[in-house]
Amino acid sequence: MLRFTLIRLLQAIPVLFAVVTLTFFLVRAAPGDPLASDKAMPPEVYAELTALYGLDKPVWQQYVSYLGNLLQGEFGPSFKYVGRTVNELIAAGLPATAELGIYAMLVAVLIGVSAGVFAALRPNSAQDYVPMSVAMMGICMPSFLLGPLLVLVFGLWLDWLPISGWGVIPGDKILPAITLGAAYAAYVARLSRGGMLEVMSQDYIRTARAKGLPEWRIVFKHGLRGGLIPVVAFLGPAFAGLLSGSFVVETVFQIPGMGRLYVQGAFNRDYTLIMGTTVLFATLIIVFNLLSDILSVWLNPKLRQQYQGSSQ
Fold first, then answer.
1. Has this prediction a pTM greater than 0.85?
2. Contact, 259 vs 101, CB < 8 A?
3. Which entry of 43, 100, 131, 158 is 20 to 30 Å from 194 by CA?
């Protein structure tokens, strides 16, 4: 496992380098001036700001300077939030995004696994068709459509839940978590169903039934360990996707998180803010993919034997 982890970490270095390089040059190739404002700026002030942010240097020198700062963990000052660094903005927005991602993941796992296992127990029946049809609807419905629908129904028509804010009014985290986690719950449901169907047809399951073990014990003790391996493999990319894909949800529900910060940085042409959030999201995706792979190898004896054999 140590060798497997080290190899994955070494593979992550060129990936991060490619993300940083492509994002840096693409951002600067986009049209528009990051220092432009609605009010006319005196030429001498503009020149001072350009020198302050290093925009008066050639692009390759800006790139080398940014890489040096990045290796020290510094994303630089924000172009639009005067007096604040990107590190400070990320530290302020990341807790809300992480909390939203955790709640959305709980929604996805609880609903998805329950629906998938429930459907797999009676395949090709109404017990199977109904939850899988709902799961397909969840996959097809994007968050920018589901969010306003939930706001309309539960926030405006029924007046059950608040429609904006984060941590201010009781219940204001329910609709955003459901909106963000619904699509992932649908994927988890389909993966759970497929994994359980495969495991429940194995010989050791038939042996357990022949011994007279209760069905619930067969499902929860023997079936879930192998049946949820596809779900575990999906959880790493899913959680990274929840963190990096919260732009729409945070904008709809007015959540002061990283997604909303990223959107504002793109609109404002805030080079350093775009770079900082992109690098952070890329790092999170790599880390959670690695954790997911480690859990998958740990749960699957065949994969463990494969990597142990290759290491020898």
1. no
2. no
3. 100
Residue 53, φ and ψ in degrees, nearest 5:
-90, 5
Q: What is the pLDDT of residues 87-116, one digit of tens each?
A: 999 898 888 888 888 999 899 889 988 888
Tell me which residue of 187, 191, 189, 163 sits closest to 176, measured CA to CA: 163
DSSP symbol at 221: I
User: How many C-beta neighbours within 10 Å does residue 149 have?
Assistant: 11
Q: Are 80 and 154 in contact (CB under 8 A)?
A: no
pLDDT-based confidence at residue 63 (cuts at 50, 70, 90): very high
- List helix spans (H) across 157-270: 174-200, 203-210, 215-217, 224-227, 229-244, 247-252, 258-268
- CA 196 → CA 1, 41, 126, 300, 307, distances in Å? 26, 65, 17, 14, 25
Q: Which CATH class is domain 93-268?
A: mainly alpha
CA distances for 102 relative to 110, 145, 169, 296, 311, angstroms: 12, 22, 19, 20, 35
Least confident of 78-87, 110-119, 301-310: 301-310
Q: Which residues are paired to 85 by β-bridges?
A: 77
Domains of the chain, by residue range, sit at: 1-31+270-312, 93-268
According to DSSP, residue 269 is labeled T
Question: What is the C-alpha to C-alpha distance for residues 66 and 187, in angstroms, rounded to an integer?
Answer: 39
Task: Inform me whether the pLDDT recorded for 66 exceeds 80.
Answer: yes
DSSP classification of residue 222: I
